[in-house]
Amino acid sequence: MTDWNADLYLRFAEERTRPAAELLARVPLAAVRHAVDIGCGPGNSTELIVRRYPEATIAGIDTSPDMLEKARCRLPEVAFTLGDAATFAAEPPADLLFANAVLQWLPDHEALFPRLMESLAPGGVLAVQMPDNLDQPSHRLMREVAARPDFAGKIGDAGAVRARILPVEAYYDLLAPLAAALDIWRTTYVHVLADAPAIVDWLRATGLRPFLEPLDEAEKTAFLDAYTQQIAAAYPRRVDGRVLLAFPRLFIVARR
Questions:
Q1: Is 1 within a domain?
Q2: pTM beyond 0.85
Q3: Consecutive sets of 10 residues in the chain, 256 residues long: mean pLDDT of each?
Q4: Residue 227 belongs to some domain of the structure
Q5: What is the CATH number of the domain that holds 59?
């Protein structure tokens, strides 16, 4: 997959940062020595950690060079490095592992989450936020458009583009034996956006990427045109002309 587009991602920086802020607010640590922002993106979530724990040594990892470049410009004092959450291990063990909107892209959470817990120092916290929106019209329609004959040959199995995260109960059963304290909740944000193309712009930076990646430029344009038409029907304009994008997210705060 090609690199992420940090500028496109940051068009909705305020909306994307809010879940990270609400996740960090539930972290029950008065002080942190060593924190890692896993999947740090352009550093918007890392900046929240820097503000709350100014005395901490903070690092950020991401697979995207473009995201890391933006993060280094935002926070030159933080060590941002190329790294993959799928194989990450904190050294030294971290007091805080913060993973905002990244782990949903990875498979095998039954192995991933216990491994991340092992990277915590005693009393350390794993804080995770993951979009839980695959059943929303925004993502259901991606799969439906991708299944059309014009696109299916290149995209393949649209249902396999992103694996589903586990049910809430499964994360509880997975983490409860490893955690001294465990906090799990689900929130549905309702984002007020200008119109259907704004919803598509939001998703082009994230969920649409695996669908668009295999297509040539003409096919991408055709896909986006078809998808935008479907989005406009699924998200009608409200009384003021704007549209509402419902966005469920799952939060987990586990203390070792």
A1: no
A2: yes
A3: 50 80 97 97 95 97 93 95 93 96 94 97 98 95 95 87 91 98 97 95 89 95 97 98 97 98
A4: yes
A5: 3.40.50.150
